[in-house]
From TrEMBL:
It is found in: Cell outer membrane. Keywords: Cell outer membrane, Membrane, Signal. This is RagB/SusD family nutrient uptake outer membrane protein. The keyword Membrane applies. PROSITE patterns: PROKAR_LIPOPROTEIN. SUPFAM superfamilies: TPR-like. InterPro entries: SusD-like_N, SusD_RagB_dom, TPR-like_helical_dom_sf. Belongs to the SusD family. Residues 73-226 form the SusD-like N-terminal domain.
Amino acid sequence: MKKYTYILIAILSASLLVGCEGFLDERPNKSRLIPDSLDDLRALLDNEDELNRIPALGIIGSDDMLTNDNGYNFYFTPTAINGYIWNEDIFEGSPSIDWSFPYRSIFIANVVMERLDFLVGEGRYTEEEVAEVRGMALFFRAHSHFNLAQYFAKPYQPATAPSDLGVPLRIDTRIQEPSPRRTVEEVYALVLEDLAQSMEMLPEWQPIRTRPSKRAAEAMLARVYLTMQNYEQAETYADRVLASGSFHLLDYNDLNPSANYPFAPYNEEVIFHAGQTSHEFNVADPSTFIHPDIFESYTDNDLRRGLYGRPRALGYNFKGNYTGTLFYFGGIALDEMYFIAAESKVRNGDSTEGIRILNQILETRFETGTFEPVSVTSDEEALDLVMFEKRRSLLFRGVNWLDLRRLNLDPRTARVLTREVNGVTYTLEPNSNRYVYPIPVEELNLNPIEQNIRN
């Protein structure tokens, strides 16, 4: 099935580059593998290597990780060499898979939706029959546009979103035409619209976790609204996921800390499975260490210590991937919904309920009988505690990067990042222009748009 999907994608790409209208007007035949049925279109969306992937720039850019001089000197791509020290120029003219993969996903989603329109227009299917596949395509398009905005556009701020530069929005298959950068507000508006539509079309949940579901759309909405600092809506959608009963927290007492990768793929916490793009710093690199500030904060009875950390001579590698492999998880899981719900409730004035939810998840992360529920005396203390535990729990998923950009907008929660490489200290200040990555030159050559300022 995967090989067949690759062939379909290649033919679709070539056909659409020649002329989109001519391709869509053509009837499929045996000599060309053009998607001619609902199963064909579902097969395109089932290609997880293309669609279920997020940028990994948030790993090397955040304080989840550190490396040493030997590890840094091993880096061989501009993305890793420059990304680790937050250089002004990251890609040095080279292509970026962290830019191209999301747009490939968006292209495939648009192909599917246009082909659905064609098949429905021919009378071969009704809208009801194609709704689930259309909902999947809408989800993937929203997911990829959102991820692009987290790396190549400024953080969402209500006051400036109508004027801040976002990313190009692709809503059809005319990839040969220039696409201007839209505003941050326009990008988020499309993401929210696509997710809202997909939520109405998708099944409650999917036994195949690489496929989007209604629960996945709700979880994405919780994440998007959190990023927008709309904590009322973030709470609403996180609560919906928690109340659904479709997923369950893992009891970390049931897992084996001696295993190479203690977490099973598609486990019962996973709402939507995705991986991250692969770089030398995030695929079995023995010199990529959990930041010591995080690892040293785990107590002996904290099971995250043994399940997340693989001891090395100079630090601890991260092995707590919800992929069950050496590849980093980039999807959405139930634990994140607990933290979104807890933070949102605290910010919305109900710290008691927020801490209650926090205690629910923490109890499953400590040795049985050793966990003492946490308590706080102020809303500020509650927020600090929720964010501290979230950072310690959702390691190496890219979530920390999203939170850094958002929390930096408030001086009380902003933090300065520092790294020392070969005797030189590098610093990333809160709200620095370098929290927005440059548009790759390959895109600028094909689609002349304004470059991000990073000096």
